[in-house]
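ingest -> fold -> write
write: protein_1
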Amino acid sequence: MTRQIFFAETGGPEVLRLREVELGAPGAGEALIRVDAIGVNRSDAMFREGRYFYSPQLPSTLGYEAAGVVEAIGEGVTDVAVGDSVAVIPAFQLTDYGTYAERAIVPASALVHRAADSDPIQAAAAWMAYITAYGALVEGNPVAAGDHVLLLAASGGVGLAAIDVANRIGAIPIATTRSADKEQRLLDAGATHVIVTGEENLSERVREITGGRGVVTAMDPVGGPGIVETIGSMAPGGRLLAFGLLDPRNDLSKGLLDVPGIELGLYTLFPVTTDPERREAAIKFIDASIADGTFKPVIDRTFDLSEYTEAHRYMESSAQFGKIVLTVQH
């Protein structure tokens, strides 16, 4: 038996519950891992609320990220072995698998090797954020060295990862935050410029920073009414990637006529993580940057697995700077 977090109805953090389940053996292409740390993401909360881009099948577990050790493998699994230290990347749907547990069965294709002496908290916090930033800034239509990149609500895990990725490829990251108390921390994290949107006009400051041109690429996890001002910060022909849609008032059509030729895309990391070649390229890029110290996830706070409700409430307060991680004591 293993403890697992689940919910039987959609709603706020209070709908989360803890249960004991019998996992059984992993099936073909699967692995059973002992979970040591779990990355907490906004997508988990949206899935729990029933606001995600696909709906839960109740009762449902949740969780895309984890770090731990392989305890059993299913038929046909050759890339990992029992005893391997691994991290779980988002390469599955939460209707099929979840990592909020002491032990979890996941697809072996969602596992990344990590050093046995590596920090599981760091490993559990890395992959969703960095793959999201990699897919947006490096893949397909990559950001060029010297280009300005606008990163909205940049104090979350993806925003901070995107600062690292932008710097890695020679781009110029412009980070935003609603309050001035995070400004210096974003500069310390590598942002070239920080715009405090609670005190400054976003589009005016972007034009000032970019010499009137606007940004070629923007990443917006929030959307909502503010997307109009974001679009006003774009250069003609620029690309705005909406990837979180945290604001329930989203209407992505607003403001599109204000900037000719702008490309507005709803972006997720799953086309990267579910395609073997693209996934391997992302892992290689991120692994090398973690190994040389260029990429290091910022951990805001850890909670014990039993504090799952408090962890979700804290995430929804938007007080964090970086990632929130659940830890599992065995």
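write: protein_2
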Amino acid sequence: MGFFNLLQVASMPIIQVLLISALGAFMSTRYFDHLLSPDFRKSLNKVVFITFTPSLIFASFAKSVSLDDMISWWFMPVNVGLTFLIGGILGWILVKSLKPNLKLEGLIIASCSAGNMGNLPIVIIPAICDEKGGPFGRSDACHSNALSYASFSMALGGIFIWTHTYQTIKSRSLRYKALEAAGILKIPNKDLDANAETLLLKGGNNENTILEVPTSDYIGDTENQSIQEQDQSAVSKNRKESSWYRAIEVLRHFVAELLSPPAIATFFGFLFGTVAWLKNLIVGDYAPFAVIQDTLVILGNGTIPCITLLLGGNLTQGLKSSSVKPLILISIIIARFFVLPVIGFFIVKAAANFGLLPLDPLFQYVLVMQYVMPPAMNISTMAQLFDVGNEECAVILLWTYVAAAIALTVWSTFLMSVLS
């Protein structure tokens, strides 16, 4: 397969995303009478979160994956987990090095760790199989395996995105809102970054936060000393209770995330995909409840267009008021499309050399490409849910998807030459 043919295959899904985003951007301007207004985008985002995304996850996974497949593909969950772990470490390094505004911390870590494991693999990987002279064998067999790999990848990505990434964005969004509610962010000329937050917050959580507030002039020295002693006593008591408190908070957050609509859909997708008699109830031409699966497919088909339109709608304001510096964008692109894929390539090659992977070269191709995917568009859904960094998220996704058109092509060409 020639370079320009591969360029067309790899870039078409990205171009589609950019075109739909541009439409969403125009729909939020006065030329379309502000059809995608901020209030409407927020309402539509909730519909995507509660209805469309769970439908897409369940319908794809229940249909395409069986128990035998999951057993033979056991390394794929490990690989997806490594993409989030290594990407999260890279994002954390960028945060500590660049010291961005607190609003951007969660977005940077999420953009480096959470790749688009859903719609892009489902479009790109089977399309490669359809090209004449491809390195992955017969077109029909390759296409069937590619759809199964991509569906399994999407389901696994949904688990990590709506647990790891969701918690990452949620925790930093709540900290940002806590500082905003306390009036700290309203201080003139205050660029709040990680160092400033350390000086402003004590105790590590919102409930036990102590703010350094200047004492009024009319309070005497004795009263000041008494207040300081009370504060020290409260801090000491909080430290003794912190271990149990944090453990309970972690467990509470984990349970809450498992009960989110996408996570519930993932669980039932696993259940119906692996239990044969349950799968036969809804999947197949003669399934008694096939209408349920068909309905979920219809709902799931609305996920990607809605998310992409919302991305474009947020972009209109983001280009005007976004605080994302070029250095941050360049750093995310380098980490996401160069450093992370290089590490992932050596991990997959090592696993193959130790005999941990199936002999199918397409499986190895999918594993490496999981490290190359641009940031998941669900990040914009989460930013919209917590109403923190919407415009900044749109700008990050815009430029990373532009860079992805080149990165996906280059890495695809390299992997095909290595694996064929």
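write: annotation protein_2
The chain has one domain: 3-180+258-419.
The chain has a mean pLDDT of 76.
pipeline exit 0
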